[in-house]
Amino acid sequence: MISVCERDYIIGGVQANARGDGRRRTDARPLLSFELGAVPQASGSAKSAALLVGVKVAIAEVSHVGAQADDDDDVETMNTRSKHLGISEDSIRKYSDFCSKLLNSDAGGLDLASLCFVPNTTCWVIHVDVLVLAYTGNLLDTMFQAIRAALANTLIPKVSVEESGSGLARSFEFDVADEETEELKGVNDIPAVVTLYKIGNYHVIDPTPLEELCSDVQLTVAISRKGLPCAIHKYGSGSVDPSLLADMIQDAKKHGLASLEWMDREIQREKLRLSNLE
Amino acid sequence: MALDSKRIKGPEKSFVPLPLLVQSTPTPTPTSTKTKGRIDGRGTDEVRPLFATTRLVRQASGSAFVEVGGVKVVCAVYGPKPVPASKVQDHHSGGRISCDVRLSPFAALKRKQFMKEPAEHSLSNNLHTALLPSLLLAHLPKSQIDIHIQILQAQNPTSIPPNAFVSSLSLLLAPCITAASLALADAQIEMMDSVVGCNLGIYRNPSTQKLFWMVDCTEEEIETRSNGGGVWVGNCVVGVMPSIGKVTGLVMDGDIGDVGFVMEAVQVCVDACAKIHEVVVKKALIESAQAKE
Amino acid sequence: MTVVTPGERLGLAGEFFASNGTVEVGDHIYASIVGTVTTTKSTTSGELDTIQVIPTKKTMKSSIPEVSSIVTGKVLRVNPRMATLSIMVVGDQPCADNFQGIIRVQDVRATERDKIQIYNCFRPGDIVRAEVISLGDSRSYYLSTAKNELGVILATSVAGHTMIPISWEEMVCPKTKAVENRKCAKPVAIGESSTQ
């Protein structure tokens, strides 16, 4: 809940290109750094001041006939204080919906085909669970960054497959290695997610929770490494003029590339730290 | 400007005469210069014939039926009625809507379990986003409007597993939006404009690597993953308020090109929605209004 | 008559006073429901003509209680602090679903508020006419009967007969002649109530 005057103040501020914390409309807050491998029992994990992401991999049968691979992301946000934090059940469902859809699509970056080791029958399923520790606004973007970091940290056991027989009698036997592991393929190509919040007639990035309450349209854009949008979803109760869309996507592009670059450095640094530990 | 009741007011914009009639004549339109024709001979910016009617479910406050290609959608609207006490959050800001999209177990080739699937949740959420901007909910404090959509026939959305989710959304969301808005208008719920949905497929020419679009893709066009000499790379579903020209819903996925191409695709959908609104939606509403008298 | 559909442009915002069934977006007035356009000339000079869209659908649109609308409902239960009503009619239009409303003890009548006992004003089963004073809390509308023409309009006695009001605070059973306490409404001629 936000009072009318507070809302007017924020909308006026955005119009004047001056936000409550001194930023301009297209300025983001300094990005939070991650700690990889914080959860030893998970296949991969990432921790920041606000989020904890755990990745677990499991072997499953392919349910769809003819499927190449099946990658299932369950993003579950568990927060006992969600009412105080201002996150609604609906938006959590929306976010997990978006994340799993993006990662499962062709544009998601991950090489899903490589996760399927017995053709058409058995594959790895990747489960991603997100725990929100503190809510500082702009949850989807930071959440996806954390998921991206956790997936970069994920190791799946090597599987050796033996094929016997031919034709209808063809059968496969597979053996999961205990020690040997490999990294996920295509982690580097996972896009960055940028959400633009339309407040009044302008849009901002990386809003605070209060600013989020003033926004009537949210445009979530995934930006690939090539700097091209690869998913655009509109949320929120308002409508948007097509002419404004172009501006929004343009800003998303700029910010998305910056975020990707920063993520690369961050993951590099963490990986170095982890290898030094060993 | 005095309103002359004897004169039928013409539309504010003019369009190519009935894009739907062009369909019945088998000659492909020469306008499709961008590509070799589509599987069903339509031009790139031609929509399929769409059938829409209202007043199908008698008990509901308003209802609509929309059929396009093999997709058949029934929508029933109930309310306004009191908000259930458990759902009340901030009643001074006006009413709320609840959307429930259901795929019939027999909608596709393979029987769907009765349990709600993620695809249905996603359809409901996207429908909610697309409808919300059009409704004047501030006039309905403390009340709720229930929108129930049953997809009777879904053109087998489960037959292409790698992208089953994407395809069901891109194929089904547009008719759901159109049907829901029609049913809301039929229920006399106040709205700024009826929302019309339209999908668009994005294809890549394998030799030149250039992207191009096709409006209102059929299941076949998405499933075969090639069309008009291109490979299917992405899709886009847009909900539009045609008179005001604003976008209420937008879902784009896949390899959708740069900003310029995205904007072109959205604009094409907006134009297609304006056509559907003028030719089908408006007519269905006027017909049902006159049938009553 | 031409029928308009939602989103149809009816005129400029400066030309008309946009009434029922229309919506102003920017500089224009659009229809917001399916119906026929009617313009009413303003009676006083200098005022804009009124434009409205009359719905074509004959079936009654279910109505929603608003602040200051007169509603009719049935008393469901009473307790020392309030009487709970199920609102069945708003103005002269029946609701599709029943809304819940409460009459708090201080809103029963305009005078001697401190002496009111709910049980001497309403009993379960009474039909009451009341005014909406607030949208209330998440459950109920807040209603008031603090006007002469508001209060119990129909009540049955313990013996099961329809009672006749004999004063502002009493009703009598025609068969047993037993007198029961109610907050009676001033009888209003049929048709008059809707104009209030």
From TrEMBL, chain A:
Q: Does the keyword ATP-binding apply?
A: no
What's the chief localization of this chain? cytoplasm
Q: Name one GO molecular function term.
A: mRNA 3'-UTR AU-rich region binding
Sequence intervals crossing the membrane: none
Coiled coil located at which positions? none
InterPro entries of this UniProt entry?
A: ExoRNase_PH_dom1, ExoRNase_PH_dom2, ExoRNase_PH_dom2_sf, Exosome_comp_Rrp42_subfam, PNPase/RNase_PH_dom_sf, Ribosomal_Su5_D2-typ_SF
Where can this protein be found? Cytoplasm; Nucleus, Nucleolus
Keywords, ordered alphabetically: Cytoplasm, Exosome
Domain of life according to the entry: Eukaryota
Report domain Exoribonuclease phosphorolytic positions: 32-157, 189-253
- CDD domains the record matches: RNase_PH_RRP42
The cellular component terms of Gene Ontology attached to this UniProt record, alphabetical and capped at eight, are: cytoplasmic exosome (RNase complex); nuclear exosome (RNase complex); nucleolus
Q: Name one GO biological process term.
A: TRAMP-dependent tRNA surveillance pathway
**Family stated for the protein in its record:** Belongs to the RNase PH family.
What's the protein name?
Answer: Ribosomal RNA-processing protein 42
Question: What lineage is on file?
Answer: Eukaryota, Fungi, Fungi incertae sedis, Chytridiomycota, Chytridiomycota incertae sedis
From TrEMBL, chain B:
Q: Where in the cell is it found?
A: Cytoplasm; Nucleus
Q: Which UniProt keywords apply?
A: Cytoplasm, Exosome, Nucleus, Ribonucleoprotein, Ribosomal protein, RNA-binding, rRNA processing
Q: Does the UniProt entry include the keyword Cytoplasm?
A: yes
Tell me which Gene Ontology terms the entry assigns under biological process: nuclear mRNA surveillance; poly(A)-dependent snoRNA 3'-end processing; rRNA catabolic process; rRNA processing; U4 snRNA 3'-end processing
- Spell out the GO cellular component terms annotated for this protein, sorted alphabetically and separated by semicolons: cytoplasmic exosome (RNase complex); nuclear exosome (RNase complex); nucleolus; ribosome
> Is rRNA processing one of the keywords UniProt gives this record?
yes
The GO terms describing molecular function are:
RNA binding
Task: Please list the residue ranges that the record marks as compositionally biased, kind Low complexity.
Answer: 24-34
Q: Which Pfam families is this protein grouped with?
A: RNase_PH
InterPro entries associated with the record: ExoRNase_PH_dom1 (IPR001247), ExoRNase_PH_dom2_sf (IPR036345), PNPase/RNase_PH_dom_sf (IPR027408), Ribosomal_Su5_D2-typ_SF (IPR020568), RNase_PH (IPR050080)
Give the top-rank taxon of the lineage listed in the UniProt record for this protein.
Answer: Eukaryota
Q: Where is this region: Disordered?
A: 18-44
Identify the PANTHER family for this entry: EXOSOME COMPLEX COMPONENT, EXOSOME COMPLEX COMPONENT MTR3
Q: Give the record's family classification.
A: Belongs to the RNase PH family.
Q: Can you say what this protein is called?
A: Ribosomal protein S5 domain 2-like protein
What organism is the protein native to?
A: Rhizoclosmatium globosum
Automatic annotation (TrEMBL), chain C:
The record's GO molecular-function terms, alphabetically, read: RNA binding
Q: Which residues form a coiled coil?
A: none
Q: Where in the cell is it found?
A: Nucleus, Nucleolus
Q: Which UniProt keywords apply?
A: Cytoplasm, Exosome
Enumerate the Pfam families for this protein: ECR1_N (PF14382), EXOSC1 (PF10447)
Q: Which Gene3D superfamilies match?
A: 2.40.50.100, Nucleic acid-binding proteins (2.40.50.140)
Establish whether keyword Hydrolase is in the entry: no
> Domain named S1 motif: which ranges?
68-147
Q: Name one GO biological process term.
A: RNA processing
Record keyword Transcription regulation present = no
| PANTHER family xrefs | 3'-5' EXORIBONUCLEASE CSL4-RELATED, EXOSOME COMPLEX COMPONENT CSL4
Q: Which GO terms describe its cellular component?
A: chromatin; cytoplasm; nuclear exosome (RNase complex); nucleolus
Q: What is this protein's record name?
A: S1 motif domain-containing protein
Q: Which InterPro entries match?
A: Csl4, EXOSC1_C, Exosome_cplx_N_dom, NA-bd_OB-fold, S1_domain
Q: Which domain of life does this protein belong to?
A: Eukaryota
